[in-house]
Amino acid sequence: MPLNNFREILLAAIEESLSSLGDSPKQAIFFHLETTFKIKKEHIPSNLTEFTKALEGIFGPGASFLEKLIVRRLYEKLDLKFENGIDWDFLESVTRVEKHLMPKGECVVL
After folding, report:
1. What percent of the chain has pLDDT over 90?
2. Considering its fold, how many domains does the chain have in total?
3. Structure pTM?
4. Exposed, middle or buried, 48 (CB in 10 Å: 0-12/13-18/19+)?
5. Exposed, middle or buried: residue 101 (CB in 10 Å: 0-12, 13-18, 19+)?
6. Which of 19, 74, 76, 94 has a 20 to 30 A CA-CA distance from 84?
7. Cα gap 94→13, rounded to integer Å
């Protein structure tokens, strides 16, 4: 799968997960990400580390709940099985999926 397609699917998973909070909260989060953390919505997939830090800044410990929603939705969109282990990590989960889907020879950039 080309990297751009994966990033589009990831962004869709992020949008759908944030929609579970309601449309107004989702729009407020995107506004806050852009104004406070300087992360535009369309650049989230290429700035996942900063996105994760921003979610933690906004939601504190509750960020992990949203991260799990995002990863579950991503796995669903790609017809993969999500397993929530003890050592679960958002960035590692997304990277693992991306590596699994990338053609050999292409590299993953977060």
Report:
1. 68
2. 1
3. 0.85
4. buried
5. middle
6. 19
7. 11
